[in-house]
Design brief:
single chain
Length: 143
Amino acid sequence: MTAAAPDRVTGADEPSSRGALSQLIQDANDRGLSYAKMSTRAVDPATGTRLSKPYLQRLVANPPASAPSPAQLKALAIALHVSERRVKAAAAAQWLEYEATELAGYNDEVRIIVGHLAGMPEAELRRWRAMIEADERARREND
């Protein structure tokens, strides 16, 4: 994800306790995107879900106990001009304590395989790693 921002209250170089999605919104605001402008942009075209300026401010200052809905996350991605995947990863980190790793340059099938492998015991992972490495060696030898 992104590096932690300095603590705003003390000015120290301690990590911020702000959640990842809250920080994503605050970072956009710090770069000059006002909450009013975010709110104007924050519309999910599929559902018509809109995010109000107070809701956006609350996501940063006093986030709700539960994550925003998928439609709200899509509207937020549009407002911030970032990928929906990035917004969902930030929400997962903030509300589920789940850190996602982005696999750039791969299709959804590869992401599914990696997700499947992530839940395996270490011994099983070693076996799969050996098979994948053997396949890569064979491909290089045949090229």
